[in-house]
Design a protein that fits this description.
With 154 residues, the protein is an all-alpha fold. It has one domain. It has six helices and two strands.
Length: 154
């Protein structure tokens, strides 16, 4: 899976967690099955209490499909940040955003992400690349069905 795909899956999967029963077949890692709204409603109450990252309910999306409901990216990330022991500036830093999502935030991983997103600048200028990456990731999340405030798109 691409690095952006992992970012998207981590965020959209956290939002979907409210629908997934604790022992269900669907997973936030993206290998699960799409469930109907009726199934989600039937089990959503018990799942919401069991999933730490649950909280943005009503989202039903199969991996690789068009979003059925809009995911509030800021709310998902804020909730993840609140339960994280590190103080991460995910609103401005691509490194901290990736750390928050438990993804590899190394320079090599960021260079790979830059390549995926078609960065044309100098990848050895990591400061400029990081700023561009954060902006692009937020824009791509919005294009993928995420609700991203303008303040996060820079």
């Amino acid at each position: 899976m691409s690095i952006f795909g992992k970012i998207k899956s981590a965020i959209f999967g956290s939002a979907k967690a409210a629908e997934v029963p604790a022992g269900g077949a669907a997973t936030s890692a993206g290998g699960g099955q799409q469930r109907s709204a009726a199934e989600a409603a039937a089990s959503g109450a018990s799942a919401a209490g069991q999933q730490q990252s649950a909280g943005v309910g009503g989202v039903s999306q199969a991996p690789g499909s068009s979003p059925i409901s809009i995911v509030d990216v800021e709310a998902v990330l804020t909730k993840l940040s609140a339960s994280n022991s590190q103080k991460l500036d995910w609103r401005k830093s691509i490194v901290d955003l990736m750390k928050l999502l438990d993804l590899d935030s190394s320079l090599a991983a960021r260079k790979e992400l830059a390549h995926e997103l078609k960065y044309t600048g100098d990848t050895n200028d990591s400061a400029s690349m990081n700023i561009w990456l954060h902006k692009q990731v937020m824009q791509k999340l919005a294009e993928s069905g995420g609700k991203v405030p303008d303040s996060l798109k820079h």
